[in-house]
Amino acid sequence: MARRDGSRDFIEALARGLDVIRVFRPHQPVMSLTAVAGAAGLPRPTARRVLLTLEQLGYVRAAERGFELTPRVLELGMSYVLSRNRWELARPHMERLVAQTHESSSIAQLDGSDIVYVARVAVPKIVALAVTIGTRFPAMQTSLGKVLLAAMPLAQAEQVLAEPSRSGITPRVLPTAEERAATLRQIRARGWALTDEELAAGIRSVAVPLRDGEGQVIASLNVNAHAAETPVEVLTGQHLPLLLQTASAISADWAACQSAPQVTVDLPAAPAAALLPAPAAAGWVR
Questions:
Q1: 21 and 99: one domain?
Q2: Which 8-state DSSP code applies to residue 132?
Q3: CA separation for the pair 211, 107 (Å, rounded)
Q4: Are residues 31 and 151 in the same domain?
Q5: Alpha carbons 59 and 107: distance in angstroms, whole number
Q6: Which of 18, 123, 135, 136 could hold 114 in an S-S bridge, CB 3.0 to 4.6 Å?
Q7: Which CATH number does the domain housing residue 25 bear?
Q8: Which domain-ending residue is among 59, 77, 95?
Q9: What are the b/e assignments for 246-279, b being 16+ CB within 10 Å?
């Protein structure tokens, strides 16, 4: 493949190695030397040297009628996944969702009877309530909160909602216990929640759950819009399918990170005088 960077710091051999790794596709797991050379745009002798180098490093192995990738290639992607926390992993997916819908998107978790915003990608629009990371709202009047409450048994949700809100917000709508139960049952059945100016005038949103590797709902993701600009039919008919796809992608990334094997590094023993209590091991960032 032709050189793509005129800088003298550009390492052509490294670029060629990555080109060779990328030519393998799901429908073509085993490729001949000639096929690899053609797909990567490399001379056959160059492709051979690259493949043999990758084989020695454990990323490629010889197979019948050619070469195939090994599972070690997964390490390249997992290095990225493991270096970022949960919300950083979600952000690129949220940015794509916002680009598709032209509406803001947020992730929230429950804290008592409130939701707390932990991630957000916003578009510049005038809304009744400003939202930033750390903002809290009463859960039952938000689509994000409804999704999280619906993931609980009804009795537990009622216990949570019995706690006083610390948001300082008085919502427009205060449903009865019977109305709350009916709403949460409906959300549990269909898998998403809608709120239409229940928290404040002009705020309308739809939300879906985000799950960890065990399938537990640990957060929720929404698309929110101005009620005067975006009808409910647009939220549920156009934005909701994109929202569901985004939630699935985020949950898959979280599950991959959570299931990644943890590597233990043996360090030389320190002198007795230098021994100090070890800090808690770093785990999955929540």
A1: no
A2: -
A3: 12
A4: no
A5: 37
A6: 136
A7: 1.10.10.10
A8: 77
A9: bbebbbebbebbeebeeeeeeeeeeeeeeeeeee
Distance from C-alpha of 39 to C-alpha of 47, rounded to nearest angstrom:
10
Asked if residue 6 belongs to a domain, the reply is no
Angstrom distance (rounded) from CA 188 to CA 218: 15
Alpha-carbon span 206 to 194, nearest angstrom: 4
pLDDT digits (tens, 9 = 90+) for 34-75: 999 999 999 999 999 999 999 999 999 999 889 999 988 877
Please indicate, yes or no, whether residues 54 and 155 belong to a single structural domain of this protein: no
- DSSP states of 96-117: HHHHHHSSEEEEEEEETTEEEE
Q: How far apart are CA 87 and CA 69, in angstroms?
A: 31
List of E strands, the chain:
30-31, 60-63, 66-69, 104-111, 114-121, 136-138, 193-196, 203-211, 217-226
**How many CA atoms are closer than 13 Å to the CA of 61, on its beta-carbon side?**
7
Query: What tokens does 130 get?
Result: 């400003």
Q: Which amino acid is at 94?
A: M
Q: How far apart are CA 109 and CA 115, in angstroms?
A: 5
R_g of the chain computed on alpha carbons: 25
Phi-psi region of 58 (alpha: psi -120 to 50; beta: other; left: phi over 0): left
182-186, Cβ contacts within 8 angstroms, sequence gap of 24 or more: 183/146, 184/146, 184/149, 184/150, 184/154, 184/157, 185/150, 185/154
- Residue ranges in the chain modelled with pLDDT below 70: 1-6, 77-84, 126-128, 260-286
Global model pTM greater than 0.85:
no
Residue with tokens 């990555």: 18
Kindly give the interhelix angle for 33-40 and 44-57, rounded to the nearest 10 degrees: 110
